[in-house]
Amino acid sequence: MKDEGEMMKKKCLFFDIDGTLVDEQTHQIPQSTIEALRAARRSGSVVFINTGRPYSHVSAMIKALDFDGYCCGCGTEILIQGKPLYRHQIPQPVCQQIKEKADACRIDLFGENTPTCYVSLGHVENGFVKSMEILRSEGFNNIVPWVDHQSEFVKFCIAYDQHSDLEAFKLFLNEMKFEFIDRFDGFAEIVPQACSKATAIDVVRENYNVDLHDCYVFGDSTNDLPMLKHVPHSVLMGNGTPSLKPIVEKVTARIDQDGIAKALKEYGLIG
Predict the structure, then answer these.
(1) CB-based contact 153:117 (threshold 8 Å)
(2) Fewer CB atoms inside 10 Å of the end CB: C or N, the chain?
(3) Is the link from the previous residue into 192 a cis peptide, with omega within 30 of 0?
(4) What keywords are annotated for this sequence in UniProt (predicted)?
């Protein structure tokens, strides 16, 4: 049982979207999750999204839940109460250099930005076809072909296959100070080393003057690793990547088995 002083402290809660709040099979948010998030806000907690998606790809379904703010693009974009707080923009000449290196290594590139995302295809068969189909089904029509010396992004994804020179591209990324996040076979997220879901949490909690021990994070996949390692109160969804289990404080139930609601109740964050 928490004492009165502990209960009076403001708490900051951070939630990934895909696989954590939104069921990747139904593409819906479970009703138990919706009710739990509302209860957390009523109890005085500050509730944030912390996603790999750019803000331009946060759906109306998510925004309808009235989060206090959004940490997007793996920490490259942060908004509080609808106002920009932080943005790490990769300079256009660097974006162009990345695109040209990707072409040389036979890699497809998806540059994520707000308000527009840029895609460079042609090297990998069906590289981003499924991803773009999902985004367009969600109502996002801001994906356009790459324009040399104009297109820019805050982070990017790549698609590669057996014909790609992935090792050469990884060496280039390391030299340019980018982090390679392997998502699954043939797909990876690339983020500036200065940014992550963990750095985003520090920006937010400092803005609210909240101690790290009063933060709680909820995730399911490898791009959640920085925040799951950074925050003591870390929760992995039951449907999450198994290799992440040893590094989290708690493994909750699956997303479709009231995992968010159960974890919030177990922490005493909701009744």
Answers:
(1) yes
(2) N
(3) no
(4) Hydrolase
